Amino acid sequence: MDNCIFCKILRGEIPSTKLYEDENSMVILDISPAKKGHAILLAKEHAANLFELSDKSAEKILPVVKKVGQGIVKTLGCDGLNVLQNNGEASGQTVFHLHVHMIPRYKGDDVSIGWKPLSYEEGEMALMAENIKKNL
Ligand code: 5GP
Ligand code: ZN
């Protein structure tokens, strides 16, 4: 935690532009926004990703994302908002302290968050579901 940049922000050792704070989380403006107003919620508990976060902390996050996300949309008058949360380097995670992105979106904007849709072979989807369910 000593060298974690988000822990340093939470401790006030690195300055940030704060939008919201409670006992469980802090929401700040992202320093390199995809669009101006892009915010990130930082869990106060240091957890590298969602899977390491306690349920107690996890359950308190979505109401804050809802509240601050609505505030961003209302303020900017944007057309939409992506709520995005990366887990692992392969997913695009660069800071290994749980955070949730709130990205303002505008019709026809230049932000790219997307994928090329694939399709399943016959029976593959059901098998996929069965395999995942075994690990829940
Ligand atoms: P990730 O790629 O891990 O999902 O997102 C990390 C985010 O943290 C990036 O969007 C990046 O711009 C933001 N970020 C990294 N360092 C700082 C910082 O010192 N201050 C703020 N406000 N945002 C940061
Ligand atoms: Zn941390």
Spell the H/E element sequence: HEEEHEEH
Total number of β-strand segments?
5
Compute the separation of the termini in Å. 29 Å
Number of helices: 3
Largest sheet: 5 strands, antiparallel
Radius of gyration: 17 Å
Strand neighbour order, sheet with most strands: 1-2-3-5-4
Relative helix content: 25-40%
Strand coverage percent: 15-25%
Summed over residues and divided by their number, the pLDDT gives a mean of 98
Structural class: alpha+beta
- Low-confidence residue ranges: none
Silhouette: globular
Bound molecules: guanosine-5'-monophosphate, zinc ion
What does this structure look like?
This protein is α+β, with helices and mostly antiparallel strands. The protein has three helices and five strands. A five-stranded antiparallel β-sheet has the order 1-2-3-5-4, covered by helices on one side. The protein is globular, with a radius of gyration of 17 Å. The structure holds guanosine-5'-monophosphate (5GP) and zinc ion. The site of zinc ion (ZN) has 6 residues, from helix 1.
